[in-house]
């Protein structure tokens, strides 16, 4: 799936003042492309990611998926598109406290994948092995470390083999080795399945794995090469 955001603007009311977060920001991501967005805290990176994932609506501008505008979709259609085509990795893991780790993944599987029980089990096994979590598959969230919880959340985002993966600081609670491992798996999804990946990050240790780097500066997205000029 390709992603295009054109002229995206977003502002929030702060008392009597209007706080502009994004001002005509543009981004294009092709299928199989891994994009990283850098920028200081509070610069609007997470807001931009939420607009890309149809969780927020821009004040101005247009979002296109595979060249088709999404502004006319109903809430139900947006929800269906997010569930079937997108994977989200948030800064907080949002795990359900009473579900074992394996069931966290089963819960979000699409109806189509859930019907194919063998395929779903194979997919879960593959992800747990890739994230070095096989031994903890029946653990509840309170039995996991912070890093393990984050890896479960990332595996959950990948379970449905999304066409678009949106990641907000996915390595924030991981050490350097684990962080690199996780981003390598995201890179593999992009390469093998043609998944478009957009990752907001401060972690420069993983930037060698991405294809394109943008910097959010002055409320707009600039290619890193343009920032350096």
TrEMBL record:
Q: Which GO terms describe its molecular function?
A: ATP binding
| Mode of membrane association | Peripheral membrane protein
Q: Principal place where this protein is found?
A: membrane
Where in or outside the cell it occurs: the entry states: Cell membrane
Q: PROSITE patterns, per this entry?
A: ABC_TRANSPORTER_1, ABC_TRANSPORTER_2
The yes or no answer to whether the keyword ATP-binding is present is yes
| Entry keyword set | ATP-binding, Cell membrane, Membrane, Nucleotide-binding, Transport
Q: Where is the ABC transporter domain?
A: 3-227
Which InterPro entries does the UniProt entry name for this protein? AAA+_ATPase (IPR003593), ABC_transporter-like_ATP-bd (IPR003439), ABC_transporter-like_CS (IPR017871), ABC_transpr_LolD-like (IPR015854), MacB-like_ATP-bd (IPR017911), P-loop_NTPase (IPR027417)
**Superkingdom as given in the UniProt entry:** Bacteria
Asked if the keyword Calcium belongs to this entry, the reply reads: no
One Pfam short name: ABC_tran
Q: How does it assemble?
A: The complex is composed of two ATP-binding proteins (HrtA), two transmembrane proteins (HrtB) and a solute-binding protein.
UniProt lists the family membership as follows: Belongs to the ABC transporter superfamily. HrtA family.
Q: Which PANTHER family match?
A: HEMIN IMPORT ATP-BINDING PROTEIN HRTA-RELATED, IMPORT ATP-BINDING PROTEIN
Reported function: Part of the ABC transporter complex hrt involved in hemin import. Responsible for energy coupling to the transport system.
| Protein's name according to its UniProt entry | Putative hemin import ATP-binding protein HrtA
